[in-house]
């Protein structure tokens, strides 16, 4: 109860700081209150991104080993970074419903799956 009073007092003196403190406290409280299904959803998303990054990294390695100039491994590296950034954004914000991010991840997966198939024939 004492902490709540201190937060109210801080809100009177400095509303912006109180808002920041409240957001931090709520973030920590949400970790304990996260449902099992929500955690499962997060784990599945992280696992899918991990598979995507692994696929991209494998394609980069194969392109470098093949010595061919028909594949742009720098572009693939940017794709890997983009997937990582989406994962970091989701982790930082706690929001896992960015439709555009899911669509982009799916496009990257399809793209690199096709590249993998092409590399299998090289």
What keywords describe this structure?
single chain, 122 residues, mainly alpha, 2 domains
Describe the model:
With 122 residues, this protein is mainly α. The chain has 2 domains: 1-33, no CATH class; 35-120. The chain is 86% helix and 0% strand. It is built from 5 helices and no strands. Helix 3 (36-66) runs antiparallel to helix 4, helix 3 packs parallel to helix 5 and helix 4 (73-93) packs antiparallel against helix 5. The protein is elongated and about 70 Å long. The mean pLDDT is 79.
Broad shape: elongated
Order of helices and strands: HHHHH
Q: In what range is the share of β-strand residues?
A: under 5%
Structural class: mainly alpha
Specify the number of helices: 5
Separation, N- and C-terminal Cα atoms: 68 Å
Mean pLDDT: 79
**The number of domains:** 2
Low-confidence spans: none
Radius of gyration over alpha carbons?
Answer: 21 Å
What profile does the largest beta sheet have? Answer: none
